[in-house]
Write a structure and sequence with these properties.
By secondary structure, this protein is α/β, with parallel strands linked by helices. The chain contains eleven helices and nine strands.
Amino acid sequence: MPLFKRVTIVGLGLIGGSLGMAMQRRRLATTVVGLSRKLATLRRAKARGAIDVGMTNARRAVQDADLVILATPVDLIIPDALRLAHWMRPGSILTDVGSTKAHIVSTLDQRLPQHVAFVGAHPLAGSEQRGIDAAQPRLFEDSLCILTPTQRTDPRSLARVKRFWRAVADRVIEFTPQQHDRVLAATSHLTHLLASCLTLTADSTPLPSPPPSFLEMTRIAKSDPDLWDDIFVTNRVALLHAMDRFDHQWQTLRTLLKRQDRAALRRLLARAQTTRDALD
């Protein structure tokens, strides 16, 4: 039995398109509506099985929805939410898939109309690719989704969104919005910055075939700059703290290399190896 009668996905890129495919595959909604400004995107999303109905009219797309999912870049989530919420029916739920949370959740908690419930969400899935043609029906399998409720979050709406993501992803956990941003700054956002820095640091006359380690570590440097600069700026406070911690470790390595202190260097590398092994 579907969890929702009508779900509207706003933004049909990699995440929105993949989510629509996953919903169709698991029959989580009777009708999946896609909202986009581009008719070509709507046609492609429907052809790929991500949506049942495509619309360019925002009011029509959300007015009958039980659940509206904002799968737009992070800098658009707040203005889109405030605009669409006025057309959503009482009792409906608004959620998102944004990579930063504190600013989004605090703003929407205060400014959304009371007839709409908001539940912040962030599925930790994706790739450096973008667009509906990159969407995959199994993108969220074996992934983690973080929900970021607050004291203002409606418990029944939270429970429904949690059931939804448990049907799509492997695991669902809850963080505060601030905790989410601290953890993601250190494990995701800093990683993207490091990949870009490593790419820019490479020799200007690269090898004909770069080592696999370099290609693996710099793959995400191919990610969309228009998407990631918004994430970096939105989460800049937590990200700057993560960069400070990284810089401390980096300076320690520099000192050990200058001293040729092999014993201390091995101890540091062994600690990193043990920490990384534990993640598996």
